[in-house]
């Protein structure tokens, strides 16, 4: 296989690996939301343990990307793709960490079944986060700059709804240590959306070499 063709194949595989990491992270997030809603404590404990798998996948991606740079000495445009891939993988791993933080916070709640209103609010935020991450994945797979730029509006809506969620919790007579755990969970979701926006910024960098702050 000619060197250039081989390198392009490696780039494609690297992007596939990053997509797989993204789907694993998203699946973990969805599982966490479902476990919270179902008061499924064993599943929440499993999600905490599964963080090591996500970390290992990201390290494998880093190793592959580093070897590509060392072996191929890529030109500027190809190097951008590798660097963007590394940054995207790092942001996805952080989303995984925040998902674990959510699971830990849920495990600290005395009885999740007593907080239907809080869980409903979390579900509303989660639906937006899932939609956002799906659109980020699509933009990354297609190197879609316009799609990446649209992510900022989704992040703004999540920021607003997170702020409203917090205000309602602190104005409630139910405010307690348990309720604070729900505030933390919402905060972790808001941070996940920020990392989704970071991925969108790296898509733009990958395509045109410019860094834009979409936050």
Automatic annotation (TrEMBL):
One of its GO terms (biological process) is phosphate ion transport. The keyword S-adenosyl-L-methionine does not apply. Pfam families: PhoU. Its main location: cytoplasm. Keywords: Cytoplasm, Phosphate transport, Transport. One of its GO terms (cellular component) is cytoplasm. Homodimer. Belongs to the PhoU family. This is Phosphate-specific transport system accessory protein PhoU. The lineage of its organism: Bacteria, Bacillati, Bacillota, Bacilli, Bacillales. The gene is phoU.
